Amino acid sequence: MDNDKKGKVVKFLKIMSAYFGLYIIHYIILPYFFKYGVPESASYIKVFMLLLFPLFDILILKSNILYGSVGICLYSFCVYIYNAKNAYDFSLGGFIGLGVYKEPYVLSDIEESIYVYIVYYFIIYIIVFIIRKIREYLRKKEEERWNS
């Protein structure tokens, strides 16, 4: 295996392990951290972490949209396998999820979560890309000014 492919495989495995680590925090550690069940504030913590994770993924791990999409699919697959006894009121029926937990709603909620996350990831990726291009352009202009 040449170095380029090896580097891509290592990068892919780092990103997948980060998404798996996020799942472990959300569904293995956090639900059992609270003494009297999972409070509503834990759902806000989970959503906040999911909103910040694309920034971590793009800026720190240097991921791309394909790896991010595969990562959220891995995360969602893990949620489908084990969702900590419906820890975050996941897959509730009724109007705006106010009903009771039903197993058939799990796949539809996961599918909806994947779509929302990928769109959000794409928007964050575009914003970061534009900011990087602007910074690169300004850096080149500054170098030209100093060189002339």
Could you write a compact summary of the structure shown?
The protein has one domain. It is 73% helix and 0% strand. It has helices at 3-29, 40-60, 65-81, 105-147.
Set out the fold topology.
Blueprint: H1 3-29, H2 40-60, H3 65-81, H4 105-147
Helix pairs in contact: 1-2, 1-3, 2-4, 3-4
Cα end-to-end separation: 46 Å
Tell me the strand percentage band.
under 5%
**What is the tally of helical segments?**
4
Give the averaged pLDDT, no decimals: 81
Low-confidence residue ranges: none
Shape: elongated
The helix-strand sequence is HHHH
Q: Helicity, in percent?
A: over 70%
Q: Specify Rg, calculated over alpha carbons.
A: 19 Å
Q: What is the domain total for the residues?
A: 1
Biggest sheet overview:
none
Structural class from helices and strands?
Answer: mainly alpha
DSSP strand count = 0
Write a structural description:
The protein is mostly helical and 148 residues long. The protein has 4 helices and no strands. The chain has one domain (3-147). Helix 1 (3-29) runs parallel beside helix 3 and helix 2 (40-60) crosses helix 4 (105-147). The longest helix is centred in the last third of the chain and has 43 residues, at 105-147.
